[in-house]
User: Fold these one by one.
Assistant:
Number 1:
Amino acid sequence: MTHAWVELTGPDGHNVQAPTEAQLAAALSEIYEGDGAGADGIPPSAVLRFGYDDGLMYQMEVVRGDTGGGAIRFEEWSDRDCEIALASPRRMSAGKEDALQLWKWMAQRQVAKIRDQDWQE
């Protein structure tokens, strides 16, 4: 039987299995409302992944942009090991609320809604 999973890698680098909406919002708050780049000079980021044990994986990374907004990158893969890209990565700039909506759709397995957004390829 195929099992779905969702995993959040927060700005601190820790992984959270099956994150709650509150955990998603907290990770985005660190990105959007933090006090700048980390000690290494790299802007904070977080990645939400959704996939199936025996197949497809979707990944959405949110990185703090230069102007305080967020840069979002959405990727589709054949498996968890990122062996075959199923589509070109898509990008957009978005505020915290829009990023949270995208992450909620991903956690709810609503990939079609994510694909329908105004992405730049």
Number 2:
Amino acid sequence: MSESETPQSQQAGGVIAFPSPAKTPTVTFDRRELAELLNLYGRMVALGEWRDYAIDFLKDKAQFSVYRRSSEVPLYRFVKDPALAKRQGAYSVVAATGLVLKRGPDLGRVLRVVDKRLSVVS
């Protein structure tokens, strides 16, 4: 190969940039949302109700799933779907059967449907 036939990048000793894959945006939980979810999870683990969890970040929604045993289907899925934010609320609690237990714009209020806080009875 003569010098006139070599590619320009080889002549200059340059590096060819490898094209980066297109980043598809994913929906995630922010720090405050994760704190609320993990606080509820910790309380339910202390009560012996839940034993495992999984977090899924997808392109259209984020899910926090809780399990009684890791080999089963999730007892509850806490879903964040920004596409529903203006209509029904971005947050929802889905039972193992697929039934939506509660939906709304505030995660704290939506989580109350499964929260079993201890209270003093007089």
